[in-house]
Design goal:
Chain A: Pfam families: GatB_N, GatB_Yqey. Chain A: Heterotrimer of A, B and C subunits. Chain A: InterPro entries: Asn/Gln-tRNA_amidoTrfase_suB/E, Asn/Gln-tRNA_Trfase_suB/E_cat, Asn/Gln_amidotransferase, Asn/Gln_tRNA_amidoTrase-B-like, GatB, GatB_Yqey_C_2, Gln-tRNA_amidoTrfase_suB_CS, Gln_synth/guanido_kin_cat_dom. Chain A: It is an enzyme of class 6 (ligase). Chain A: Keywords: ATP-binding, Ligase, Nucleotide-binding, Protein biosynthesis. The complex is a heterodimer. In chain A, 37% of the residues lie in helices and 19% in strands. Chain A is an alpha+beta fold. Chain A has a 9-stranded mixed β-sheet with strand order 2-5-6-9-1-10-11-12-13. Chain A has a 3-stranded antiparallel β-sheet with strand order 4-3-14, with no helix packed on it. In chain A, helix 11 runs antiparallel to helix 12. In chain A, 40% of the residues are buried. Chain B is an alpha/beta fold. In chain B, the strands form 2 sheets. Chain B has an 8-stranded mixed β-sheet with strand order 4-6-5-10-11-9-7-8, sandwiched between helices. A 3-stranded mixed β-sheet of chain B has the order 1-3-2, sandwiched between helices. In chain B, 60% of the residues are buried. Classes of the chains: A alpha+beta, B alpha/beta. At the A-B interface, loops of A face helix 10 and helix 11 of B.
């Protein structure tokens, strides 16, 4: 890993401090702030549609542009989503709470205040259990993350800084702002200080964000596309000497936008802090930018607890006061907890922990469930979705569900394989055709002429030919080394140009040689 | 007055009340085009002296009028005030019509949308004559803080017409418009009404939509009618009122029956009228106090019982108001940053966004606006919030309790609307505190959200200038103040031989030469 940008001459030095060694002396404390964009039809305080990727400044109105005289109206669906998120995070739901204005000037904020919640969040005092692989590699460990609060707010516009080397505001020639994003509902979920994770802190951070993402998906309240910014994580990290009770000075690494980066950024900051503390220097309380490419953070702006946002209750909105009946009605709509559901499905499907983890990492739990429901065996569904298809998705940089392959396709493919029409390599070719949009598996197999030769005559001829040409191997097999048959099968398949069922070829070879399989 | 076509029954259409105009239009006695043109003619003649209108939309007003006349000719059923022209305070966004809020910051701002109340005026098919002058962002009690020069009082061009809605009060008092829109944050409808001999009502907070009204202090601002009679005000109130889904603070309840109240019985037998001990006395002009006492006698004569009530926390109203208002205003006015609309001043070199914001705000805001932004920013600062904003909110609660207690003992409360008659332009410009004290009687109603109105109670002996009496009612009981106002108005009219406004002297066509503020030629051109 080399640091190439961001004035990080010193950055490389941090990497010389071994992470594990640091954790023998320091206790890391984390605080994670995750912003989730709600996928409501309209924005938080106006009727503008929200849609990612629309032409800049086409999803705006007097309200979200902050025109003189415009007033906000709370999106009731967003409030319901916030309550459901709060409930799913085991939070208490406020009986009465208000919005507040967070005042600061920035060009991407149309009113120069953000309508947010301050000391009266809609949800507070919750927790979430996350699972990380056990240290001995067997099974999982559960780590409880305490949730401080989940509150509602609006997103800002999106600034793009044009010119300059870094794409950041400093050094840019000019900046443009897209207000389509301004006013999109956000839920900010803030943890209490996370202590006791020790060397597992980076993993815990990643597991937490991952679990939150799963939860938001299960709740169907957000797209949670980290790469598109619909879920964003700010990671606060500080170190204190082991045994100390007062937290060290923290830094806040902003907008860490992938699960892997969450883990890397936390790990990087722990190491960086340790190097600074070891040198007897002080940590500067500041925001930091995460650089995905180089894997380092660089200094952002100083941030102190004295940052004065002049919060006061938003006078243009009335308090939000969900009735207990409404809260209970919403509680009844909560989905099964994703972790509980995963354990149930793992049992149903008979997957090992490792297999299940691959499935989860491939984001394939739902699609496998649907594929099994469509008639495929769990093993086949797993094999395709977290294997071949996951690799293809990864290569294309899309989600596994965006390849154009449906659960029904995979169920159909599985039937073709188990029915003996296709072997594995043929099946992979069929998948390639489906991905290429050539049709259903049957259509692709037909069009490409993929079908195992069912006629034993042709296969027997190939077997005979291979036996004749491999006297040495035949001798070994007859001598009891039955596993040597593999070499012959390979040649038979080659003779058949792959259009044969390898299992049948094995049977024929052994029966021709008069050997028991 | 040149355009009446037929009758001598109406030598001057502009002198009619809105009710008379509406009835005559319905009866076909003259057309809305004639009526509108009569007002436009008077505006053309007198606005150079008064500076009541910042913008006159003759074309738009006449088009609406012609449209109403056509519809009426076709036998269409029309709203009561259809064809009756109106002036709109420049604080309300009007689609396609420059809306400045009296500020240089918005000199060229043309809203792409109508405020809800403007939509209602359009639905009521009222020709909009233009936009009226005001103190910048409604901060002031004299209209001297307008970036476009002061408005003059039709009673005496050397005097202020009140503020912030001095443009609307002067337009109505000077017969340039029969009706106008005002906004009242601490008295900006009622105090101008008092000093111009007109009627102004601030409805219950939430009674009229604020959507599209350029915000001063969100929790205090309220839109209401300016008129020459109580019945006229009531008609406009009903047009404006009602729930608006675009304004979360608007009340989801029917508009109080103000028209019925304003045109109902004149008998106040059994009504308890409370006189607030804490409003009046020291600082109140003798003639103001005398007219007030006289009105109390008239109320007694109408059958009302006068009781004294105490609202001990009103003493703190002014202090609380001048924390809450600047706090909210400092935040509401943050949006004027030159990034999306409004004045943009770019310093030399390659300035940062922050530098552009700072230069633009420095150039675009007047001193009074800056003063209040600084006050509010300070009051909201961490470490000061509890002592200032927090404490002010507590006072607000106590004032609301005072009102609640007072309304146990009285059905309505009355006081002089303003401590003095119209003062001279320039007199208080250098003394903000004495300017602020003008609103001492009107501010408590805004803090508590209760409705209040001012009606003329006569002229002060010593200066011959109009005096107003304020009537306050409990929240959502706006009709009570209309009932009392209409009864008192009738009694006063009878006793004084006509409406106070009918005694308005001829308005000179030219303002006195040595005006302390005059509009620059450039401005005149830009806004013509």
């Amino acid at each position: 890993m080399t640091a190439t940008t961001g004035g990080s001459a010193a950055a490389t030095e941090f990497l010389t401090v071994p992470f594990d060694e640091v954790l023998t002396r320091y206790e890391p404390v984390m605080g994670l702030e995750v912003h989730v964009e709600l996928s409501t039809a309209t924005k938080m305080f106006c009727g503008c549609a929200q849609s990612f990727g629309a032409e800049p400044n086409t999803r705006t109105c007097p309200v979200c542009l902050g025109l003189p005289g415009a007033l906000p109206v709370v999106n009731a669906t967003a409030v319901e989503s916030a309550i459901r998120i709060g409930l799913a995070l085991n939070c208490q739901i406020a009986q009465w709470c208000r919005f507040a204005r967070k005042n600061y000037f920035y060009p991407d904020m149309p009113k120069n205040f953000q309508t947010s919640q301050y000391d009266e969040p809609i949800a507070f005092n919750g927790y979430m259990d996350v699972e990380i692989p056990a240290e001995d590699g067997e099974g999982v460990e559960t780590f409880r993350i305490e949730i401080e609060r989940a509150h509602m707010e609006e997103d800002t516009g999106k600034s793009t800084h044009v010119g300059g080397a870094t794409g950041r505001i400093h050094g840019a020639d000019y900046s443009v702002v897209d207000y389509n994003r301004a006013g999109i509902p956000l839920i900010e979920i803030v943890t209490k200080p996370i202590t006791g994770a020790g060397s597992r802190a980076p993993e815990v951070a990643k597991a937490y964000v991952s679990a939150l993402r799963d939860l938001m998906k299960a709740l169907d309240v957000s797209d949670v596309r980290m790469e598109q910014g619909s879920m964003r994580c700010d990671a606060n990290v500080s170190l204190m000497p082991i045994g100390a009770e007062v937290f060290g000075t923290r830094t806040e690494t902003k907008n860490v936008n992938s699960l892997r980066s969450v883990e890397r950024a936390v790990r990087y900051e722990i190491t960086r802090h340790a190097a600074i503390l070891d040198a007897g220097d002080k940590i500067v309380q500041e925001t930091r930018h995460w650089h995905e490419d180089t894997g380092i953070t660089t200094s952002g702006r100083p941030k102190s607890d004295a940052d004065d946002y002049r919060y006061f209750p938003e006078p243009d909105l009335v308090p939000v006061a969900p009735s207990r009946e409404d809260v209970e009605r919403l509680r009844a709509t909560l989905p099964e907890n994703p972790a509980v559901r995963r354990r149930r499905l793992q049992g149903d499907w008979g997957f090992t922990d490792l297999e299940m983890r691959d499935v989860v990492n491939a984001g394939a739990v739902d699609v496998i469930e649907e594929t099994v429901a469509a008639g495929a065996s769990p093993a086949a569904a797993r094999k395709w979705w977290s294997g071949d298809l996951a690799r293809r998705a990864n290569a294309q940089g899309v989600a596994v569900t965006e390849l154009g392959v449906t659960p029904a396709h995979i169920a159909e493919l599985d039937a073709l394989v188990s029915g003996g029409r296709l072997n594995d390599s043929m099946a992979r070719q069929v998948v390639e055709g489906v991905v290429a949009g050539e049709g259903t598996p049957t259509e692709v197999a037909d069009a490409r002429g993929l079908e195992l030769v069912q006629d034993d005559g042709a296969l027997q001829a190939a077997v005979d030919k291979v036996i004749e040409g491999n006297a040495g191997v035949v001798e070994k097999i007859r001598g009891g080394k039955v596993q040597a048959v593999g070499a012959l099968i390979g040649q038979v398949m080659k003779e058949m140009r792959g259009q044969a069922d390898a299992a049948r070829a094995r049977e024929l070879i052994l029966s021709t040689l008069g050997v028991e399989g | 007055m040149t355009t009446t076509t037929d009758s001598t029954a109406y030598p001057d259409l502009t002198r009619l009340t809105a009710v008379q105009m509406a009835d005559a239009l319905a009866a076909g006695e003259f057309t809305s085009v004639e009526l509108t043109q009569a007002h436009l003619d008077r505006i053309e003649r007198l606005n150079p002296a008064l500076n009541a209108f910042l913008l006159v939309d003759a074309e738009g007003a006449l088009a609406t009028a012609a449209n109403v006349d056509e519809a009426r000719a076709a036998g269409e059923e029309l709203p009561r005030l259809a064809g009756v022209p109106i002036a709109v305070k420049d604080i309300a966004c009007t689609r396609g019509l420059t809306t400045t809020a009296g500020s240089r910051m918005l000199e060229h701002f043309v809203p792409p949308y109508d405020a809800t109340i403007v939509t209602k005026l359009r639905e009521a098919r009222m020709p909009i004559l233009g936009k009226t002058n005001m103190d910048e962002f409604a901060m002031g009690s004299s209209t001297e803080h307008s970036a476009y020069g002061p408005t003059r009082n039709p009673w005496d061009l050397e005097r202020i017409p009140g503020g912030s809605g001095g443009g609307s009060s002067a337009a109505v008092a000077g017969f340039l418009a029969p009706l106008a829109i005002g906004s009242d944050t601490g008295g900006s409808i009622r105090q101008p009404a008092a000093v111009t001999g007109t009627v102004g009502a601030k409805p219950t907070y939430g009674g009229v939509s604020r959507y599209g009204i350029i915000a001063l202090a969100s929790s205090l601002d309220q839109i209401g009618p300016c008129a020459r009679t109580v019945a006229d005000a009531a008609l406009l109130h009903e047009v404006l009122g009602g729930h608006d889904p675009m304004d979360s603070t608007s009340i989801d309840a029917p508009v109080p029956p103000v028209v019925a109240a304003a045109t109902g019985t004149r008998d106040l037998t059994g009504l308890r009228v409370g006189v607030v001990r804490e409003i009046g006395g020291e600082g109140f002009q003798e003639g103001v106090q005398a007219r007030f006492e006289e009105s109390l006698d008239h109320l007694r004569a109408l059958g009302a019982e006068i009781v004294e009530v105490s609202c001990p926390h009103f003493t703190y109203a002014m202090a609380a108001y001048y924390l809450i208002l600047p706090s909210e205003a400092s935040s509401n006015l943050a949006r004027y940053d030159a990034m999306r609309y409004g004045l943009r001043v770019e310093p030399d070199g390659s300035p940062s966004a922050e530098q552009v914001m700072a230069s633009s705000r420095d150039a675009g805001f007047g001193d009074e606006v800056k003063r209040r932004i600084i006050l509010g920013t300070y009051a909201l600062s961490s470490g000061y919030y509890d002592a200032y904003y927090g404490q002010a909110q507590k006072v607000r609660t106590l004032i609301a309790r005072d009102f609640a207690a007072a309304f146990e003992q009285a059905d309505v409360l009355v006081s002089p609307t303003a401590p003095t008659t119209a003062f001279r332009i320039g007199d208080k410009l250098d003394d903000p505190m004495s300017m602020y004290l003008n609103d001492i009687a009107t501010i408590p109603a805004n803090l508590a959200g209760v409705p209040g109105m001012s009606i003329p109670s006569g002229l002060a002996e010593e200066d011959g200038l109009p005096v107003g009496i304020q009537i306050l009612a409990p929240a959502m009981e706006d009709q009570r103040m209309y009932a009392v106002g209409a009864a008192l108005e009738a009694r006063l009219t009878e006793a004084q031989g006509g409406f106070v406004i009918e005694r308005l002297p001829e308005v000179p066509e030219r303002a006195p030469a040595a005006a302390p503020h005059t509009r620059s030629d450039e401005t005149e051109e830009a806004r013509a």
